[in-house]
Amino acid sequence: MKKSIHGKTIYRSNLATDLRVAHECGFNGIEIVTSKLVSYLEQNTDGDLNAMLKKYGIQPVCINDICHVETDDKEKFDGILKETHRLSKIAQEIGCPYIQLVPLLALEGRPWSEIRDITGKNIQKMADIAAEYGISFQMEPVAWSPIHSLSKCLDMMTVADRDNVKMGLDFWHLWAGGETTPDEVAALDKSMICNIHFCDGKKQPRNTDWDETILRAYYPGDGDIPVSEWVEAVKATGYDGFWSCELVSAKHWEDDVFEVASNMSKAMDKYIFSV
C-alpha cells in the first residue's frame, strides 16, 4: 500500500511529531507542510531530517506548497522563483519528488485565455528551475479559484508544456469546484497523475465566502462527496502511486493527533485498500 498522510491533517503538530504519527498509524508516506519544514530546518539540518525519515521508514511524497503561482506581479513572482529554488534544493536533499503548486485568485474575473496563459507561463519558468534539481510539480485545482476543474488545469498545463508538471487529484477541490466528474478522472492518462488527496466534505454556492477549515471538516464517509465513486474512478486509470489523506479541519486540529491519523488510516483501508 502506498498510503500517505498530509501534514495538514494534523496541522497543529510539528514535523518530528508528524513523522512519528505517520509511522505509528500505518502510513509509509507523508506530504510535508512547508511551514513545518521551514521551522524544522531553522533548528536542524537536512541530514537530521533524512535520519528521522529513515528511522520511521517514511517516504516524503510532496512538499506543500507554493501558492499564488498565477500572479502577474513581477516582484511577487520573483519571490516565487526564489522559493522554487529553495524548496527544490531541499526536496532534492531529502528525496522528495514533488512540490505542490496552488493557483489562487489574483487573476479572478479576467478572460480564461489570459488566466491560462499567465499561469501556464509562470509554471513553465518554475518547472525549468525545479528540473535543475530533478524535482517535479504537483498541480492542484482549487475549488473557489478560476482554475477549479480538471479540464481547466489540463488546459493550463498545455501552456506550461513541461514533463515535470503533473496532476494531484484532490477529491474535495474537484467535486466542490462543480465542473469535474468521476468519469473525467477515470479517462485521465495515469502518467499525468502523481498523487491523490483522499478526503470528504461539503460545499456552498460559488458566490459566497468559503471557509475550507469548516467545509472539509469531515472524515471520509461523513460528508457529501460520493467517496467510493471517486476512488473507483482513480483506480480505473491504473494509477498505482501514493494516496494521501487530507483532513483540513479546524475542529479536528484540536483533537488528539494519533486518534485523527488512525481514523484517517482506517478510512483509507476501508475505501481504497480493502480486498
- For this structure, the CATH topology is TIM Barrel
Domain module count: 1
Which CATH-level-2 architecture? Alpha-Beta Barrel
**Ends apart, CA distance between termini:** 12 Å
Number of helices: 11
Q: What is the total tally of β strands?
A: 8
Structural class category: alpha/beta
Beta-sheet strand percentage? Answer: 15-25%
The major β-sheet equals: 8 strands, parallel, barrel
List the strand order in the largest sheet: 1-2-3-4-5-6-7-8
Oligomer: single chain
From the alpha-carbon coordinates, what is the Rg to the nearest angstrom?
A: 18 Å
CATH class: Alpha Beta
- Name the helix and strand elements from N-terminus to C-terminus, one letter apiece: EHEHHEHEHEHEHHEHHEH
**Averaged pLDDT, please?**
97
* Helical fraction: 40-55%
CATH H-tier superfamily: Divalent-metal-dependent TIM barrel enzymes
Shape: globular
Unreliable runs, pLDDT <50, ≥5 residues? none
Would you give an account of this structure?
- This protein is an alpha/beta fold and 275 residues long.
- The chain has a single domain (3-273), classed as Divalent-metal-dependent TIM barrel enzymes (TIM Barrel, Alpha-Beta Barrel).
- 46% of the residues lie in helices and 15% in strands.
- The chain has 11 helices and 8 strands.
- It has helices at residues 15-24, 34-43, 46-56, 74-94, 112-132, 150-160, 171-177, 182-186, 212-215, 227-236, 257-273, and strands at 3-6, 29-33, 59-67, 98-102, 136-139, 165-170, 193-198, 243-245.
- The protein has an 8-stranded parallel beta barrel, surrounded by 8 helices.
- Helix 1 packs parallel to helix 3 (46-56).
- The chain is globular and about 45 Å long.
- The termini are close together.
